[in-house]
Write a structure and sequence with these properties.
The strands form two sheets. Strands 2, 4, 5, 6, 9, 10 and 11 form a seven-stranded mixed β-sheet that branches. This protein is elongated. It is mostly beta strands. 0% of the residues lie in helices and 53% in strands. Strand 5 and strand 6 form a beta hairpin. It is built from no helices and eleven strands.
């Protein structure tokens, strides 16, 4: 019932910047960005709660910033000082609160490719 549309991926040189966007079709409780490099498992990059509390993977701390615009139901990932190791498919996720048991249901975007290369 929640659709996520991602945009902003592309090719960037090492040290460059890129901003990813993910628009949800409705209000959500939290957003997260995950990434998956070839041959590796999907990992959490950053997340942000409804109260704007954030957390980051150690590998991106100080370089990436996650933010959200609740009026637009959109989450952003500003990526600076990009490294070749940041190359991956980046996936947007969102959670909603379930009225039945107060749990959470998670939704996923389709992913956007980020390639950091000279």
């Amino acid at each position: 019932q929640v659709q996520l549309v991602e945009s902003g991926g592309g090719l960037v040189q090492p040290g460059g910047s890129l901003r990813l966007s993910c628009a949800a079709s409705g209000s959500v409780f939290s957003f997260g960005w995950y990434r998956q490099a070839p041959g590796e498992e999907r990992e959490l990059v950053a997340s942000i709660s409804i109260s704007d509390a954030t957390n980051y993977a150690d590998s991106v701390k100080g370089r990436f910033t996650i933010s959200r615009d609740n009026a637009k139901n959109t989450v952003y990932l500003q990526m600076n000082l990009l490294k070749p190791d940041d190359t991956a498919v980046y996936y947007c996720s969102a959670s909603v609160i379930l009225s039945s048991n107060n749990g959470r249901r998670y939704y996923w975007g389709q992913g956007t490719q980020v390639t950091v290369s000279s």
